[in-house]
Amino acid sequence: MKKFKVGIIGATGMVGQRFSLILSKHPWFEVVCLAASSRSAGKTLKEAVGSRWAMTEPMPSALENMVVLDAEQDIEKIASQVDFVFCAVNMKKDEIKALEEKYARAECPVISNNSAHRHTDDVPMVIPEINADHIEIIAAQRKRLGTKRGFIAVKSNCSLQSYVPALAPLMDKYKVTKALACTYQAISGAGKTFETFPQILDNVIPYIGGEEEKSEKEPLKIWGHIEGDKIVDAVSPSITTQCLRVPVSDGHTAAVFVSFENKPSKEEILDAWKNYSGVPQELELPSAPKQFLNYFTEDDRPQAKLDRDLEGGMAVSIGRLREDTQYDYKFVCLSHNTLRGAAGGAVLLAELLAAKGYFD
Ligand SMILES: NC(=O)c1ccc[n+]([C@@H]2O[C@H](COP(=O)([O-])OP(=O)(O)OC[C@H]3O[C@@H](n4cnc5c(N)ncnc54)[C@H](OP(=O)(O)O)[C@@H]3O)[C@@H](O)[C@H]2O)c1
Q1: Closest Cα to atom 33, ligand 1: which residue?
Q2: Maximal CA-CA distance, the chain
Q3: Does ligand 1 lie within 6 Å of residue 71's CB atom?
Q4: pTM here?
Q5: pLDDT digits (tens, 9 = 90+) for 65-81
């Protein structure tokens, strides 16, 4: 397969840094340009990031001297150099919406980590193992935008990347009626490290702006279906969440309670998790975990520090499945928030789109 030329918009940020590491070793994608705000434009990536480099691995040498472009001023220039861009920027929602549409209208597909377009009717929000078929809405979106190649596809919020995959294989057969999830979210999800966020040491902060709404609403779009030129949200299950920030560098944990219309046995749930796979596994996409859902039998697993990097941080870990007195079952799950939950999830979505010919 020819290598696709790729740009990273928001290259200096926490998610952008993850993109640079993942893409520097990617078999299908090659980074040919980087962009961020006007504050970074004109500097090399190394100069622009400075002391903000937050990864444990060093900055890829092929990128450190690449000059950062201005994400808002250099759209045509960037669009002319790449097959598509990844986008992860920290701007106001309406500014991100407009920016991503400008790239799409410049015939440059956008794979986005931002929340701005997640509820745009004809923008697919995809967890590739669960709703790969939603990419078919791109034809309708291209018609609305008047583009041949350009479109926007998004990934969902990092908070739900552990419990939505765990519920997905139980949805059709056993009909999940309601779920409650309390999430314990890592500081990298706020673009922070322990150095830049000392207030989190010895602390738990019971508020993450907008996170509970996203965690309750986005799963319904993922479980929705295409009807004409839109994706129509599912009407169930009913989901309620509380999202807390905890002193963990990477890895969002969720404590989940769930009830069903047809209550499965514990063995049936474990079987459903073990045997669940999707299009990424079928197509053997480069970032697809071989085993998507991994159940730990030990009472003290999964743990963020031990298990977040399972299968390159792209697998989901589950443990402590047991019956509950108020819901049918409860369990704990974990996913890496900047890998599966952000850059890695977006790269997997791009691999799916590449394999299906959307960047041709
Ligand atoms: N961190 C996570 O785990 C996570 C997970 C899922 C989704 N997300 C989403 O991904 C996005 C980025 O998050 P992050 O944690 O990487 O944020 P971050 O570390 O604060 O980085 C923000 C990036 O946006 C760029 N930027 C800011 N203002 C800009 C402007 N006016 N024009 C162009 N670029 C601009 C910054 O460039 P400068 O360096 O030049 O300022 C930087 O590259 C957010 O929408 C976030 O909600 C994050």
Answers
A1: 37
A2: 60
A3: yes
A4: 0.97
A5: 999 999 999 999 999 99
